[in-house]
Amino acid sequence: MFPTIHSQRVLAARGPKNPVVPHAAPLVVTESEPDAELQLRSATTVFLLGKECPFRCLMCDLWRNTTDQRTEPGSLVRQLAAVLPSITHRDTIKLYNASNFFDPQAVPTSDLAELAALVRDFKCVVVENHPKLIGPAVQAFADQINGQLQVAMGLETSDPERLSWLNKQMTVADYDLACRTLLDWGVSIRTFLLLPAPGVPSAEMVSHTLASVRHALAMGSEVTSLIPLRAGNGILDQLILDGSVTSAEGSLIIQTFELALQLPRQQRQRVLLDLWDLEKFFHTEGNRHALRERLINFNSRQRIDA
Ligand code: SF4
Predict the structure, then answer these.
(1) What CATH number should be reported for the domain whose range is 7-301?
(2) Ligand 1: distance of its center to the CA of 290 in Å?
(3) First to last CA, the chain
(4) SS3 label, residue 189
(5) Is residue 58 within 6 Å of ligand 1 at its C-beta?
(6) What are the residues whose beta carbons fall under 8 Å from the beta carbon of 33, sequence distance 6 or more?
(7) Predicted structure pTM score
(8) In the chain, where are the structural domains located?
(9) What is the mean pLDDT of each run of 10 residues along the chain (306 residues)?
């Protein structure tokens, strides 16, 4: 059904990485996100620079801002310490390293205690990790902070066939097991879903994505974030050109998000739409500003009547 995808093909389609400066202070972005009581809180993402993820997912472009070498011990601690004084709130901090926080090649094990100490007083600490890399280090990290640890995992799609096509080297069962383990440890779950998953035609985009949202909610995902599929990593561009992948359309993105917000869910479960660079999916200049404001409102209030 789909053209064969393997890591070599993904790598061969790539362009160059961005030049990186290992000792520079990392990029920091602060937004607002609703907490479990739907109170708007500050959420700051710190984009840490370290070693590239060993997986080679079809849709990933995070490798662009990574190093080829194993992350040096102490480097991430220095990066985080350099930007912490500029983060004045203590609501949510996301330590995103364009890889897996509990991969010792990307985040040296010897740095975990110091990183935990630096973020100890935040109400919520979010890190990204592949479902197959959930292990005792996660629980140990959670025990070292005063706030809530939340692990963000890319399920991408709950359709087993399409998930296997993404070269993510995991199954839906791996995600489910990771969810159960994290919840047993008192760790919260954030789930990333693609909108649409590669290979889903426009006519099925809404129903397919809603099925994935339902699955994440059923597994206890506290925050489920819809990520519009973005070309530009090389392999996706090739697959769009040959017709194997359909990119997202703005109107379908909004329709899907509106319906996802109306799905039954526990009160503390939030469904968000990732708004980064969203304007590129809308072809008319028209009311882009008003549209963004409307979607920010949906995210904040978790209702579509805003
Ligand atoms: S696991 Fe995440 S960081 Fe690694 S290649 Fe896949 S999408 Fe990218």
Answers:
(1) 3.20.20.70
(2) 33
(3) 42
(4) strand
(5) no
(6) 40, 41, 43, 92, 223, 270, 272, 299
(7) 0.97
(8) 7-301
(9) 87 94 90 96 98 97 96 97 97 98 98 98 98 98 98 98 96 98 98 96 95 98 97 95 90 96 96 91 75 93 84
